[in-house]
Amino acid sequence: MSKTTKKYWPLFVLPTFAAFIIGFIVPFVYGIFLSFCKFTTVTDWKWTGLQNYTKIFYVNGKLDTTFLHSIWYTCLFTAVTVIIINVVAFLIAMALTRGIRGTNFFRTAFFLPNLIGGIVLSYVWLMIFNAILDDYSKTIVSTQWSAFWGLVIVVCWQQIGYMMIIYIAGIQNVPSDLIEAAKIDGANSHQIVKDVILPQLRPTITICTFLTLTNGFKLFDQNLALTNGNPGKMSQLLALNIYDTMYGTTGWQGVGQAKAVLFFIMVAVIALVQNKLTTQKEEVA
């Protein structure tokens, strides 16, 4: 680093740092504060302490089954999409690094869905699903499980291409010497993938798992546009449940904010644990 760069680096960092403080840190801290308040707007608040947090799981003395349902429904949805997206993205990446004809076209085709906004994408798929299910006198929200698998299909279709690009980059960075040595030793294709390529892809797998895990938990746009929580809020993921609490029930903005804080803590803990476990495996390897 030159002396000039060392002297003036704060001037380059300051705009980004200021934007980060104003656009993220301040709203985040103020949001935590509002979770301890009763409010209708961010300036019209009244301190209530832990009252909002006591209402997260209980409504009028009764267990809030809708919120609890959204928790396990989100966990199941995230587990299913993480597995499907990563497995399919890896398989496609393996196929597209074999030098087949039209590789660039297929890479572009698989990646394109990621460029479409979640709302638009979901409305398009909603028409497709309902057109198909209409022959059976059903819709995508006829049951919570038809809604569940509809969400899984939409999210996987959108994100597989993005993860595929990351896996392709990881596969292309695997030293060719290792693969050639494995072939000389008599390893077949399955053994090369298992014993050479996958161990070398551990950092890539960590990244893709982290991204799909967090994307699954915080999914909102597709859930809102495709099912809107129907039937009877049985297909509500956590983000939509929080939105519904804040804007669907008068006077419950504080409870919704408390749910959002709890949601952040839960996702942060899960993401950190996942990152720690996968990092330890990389170090062992």
SSE topology sketch:
Blueprint: H1 3-34, E1 37-41, E2 44-47, H2 51-54, E3 58-59, E4 62-63, H3 65-95, H4 103-111, H5 118-133, H6 144-172, H7 176-184, H8 189-200, H9 202-217, H10 221-226, H11 238-248, H12 253-284
Antiparallel strand pairs: 1-2, 3-4
Helix pairs in contact: 3-6, 3-9, 4-6, 6-9, 7-8, 9-12, 11-12
Description:
There is one protein chain. The chain is mainly α and 285 residues long. It is 73% helix and 5% strand. The protein is built from 12 helices and 4 strands. Strands 1-2 form a two-stranded antiparallel sheet. The radius of gyration is 23 Å and the shape is globular. The relative contact order is 0.13.
Could you give the distance between the termini?
34 Å
Helicity, as a percent range: over 70%
In sequence order, what are the helices and strands, one letter per element?
HEEHEEHHHHHHHHHH
The 3D shape can be described as globular
Oligomer: single chain
Proper CATH architecture of the largest domain: Orthogonal Bundle
Q: Note the main sheet.
A: 2 strands, antiparallel
Q: Calculate the mean pLDDT score and round it.
A: 87
**CATH fold annotation of the largest domain:** MetI-like fold
CATH class of the largest domain: Mainly Alpha
Number of structurally distinct domains = 2
